Amino acid sequence: MSDQAPLSADEMLDIVDEQDRVVGQARRADAYARKLRHRCSFVHVRDGAGRVFVHRRTARKPVFPSHYDMFVGGVVGAGETYDEAALREAEEELGVRGLPAPVPLFRFLYETPEHAWWSAVYEVRCDLPVHRAQRDCSQPASAKPGRAQPGAQRDGGK
């Protein structure tokens, strides 16, 4: 895993504008509470067999608690690059060291009445044994693309 410590509610984040330019800094908890636009990295992980790493977020997560997620990732710390955060978060959440650098795919601005952040999306292949981070993932799984898993439902349960 990377040598950087996981981010907590007191960690500082860069606050950014509509063009993703840094305009200030705030504590993570304040950025969430005040809906300050910040940065996040999300990594789509596959193994050598093409299986996608899917996990269930813990109930303690402030955003999308207990939801299934096909990305690992999280906030970008103040002064940290998207690339650095993507690798740090992927190694933390997968519980691995020596992961190849995630490949950047695209960026977009995500804004809802509750949340606002710039998102950088990546992909990486992980052939290492995964030891999920208990604080981030409560239930890991993997899925072969194009195949529904037992008990899986489409949006709306249809």
Automatic annotation (TrEMBL):
Entry superkingdom: Bacteria
GO-annotated molecular function: hydrolase activity, acting on acid anhydrides; metal ion binding
Location of the region described as Disordered in the Swiss-Prot/TrEMBL record: 136-158
Claim: Membrane is one of the keywords in the record: no
Keywords: Hydrolase, Magnesium, Metal-binding
Domain Nudix hydrolase: 36-158
Residues noted as binding Mg(2+) in the record, renumbered to the chain: E89, E93
Cofactor(s) needed for function: Mg(2+)
InterPro entries xref list: NUDIX_hydrolase-like_dom_sf, NUDIX_hydrolase_CS, NUDIX_hydrolase_dom, NUDIX_hydrolase_YfcD_pred
Pfam families (UniProt xref): NUDIX (PF00293)
Family listed: Belongs to the Nudix hydrolase family.
Protein name: Nudix hydrolase domain-containing protein
Species in which this protein is naturally found: Winogradskya consettensis
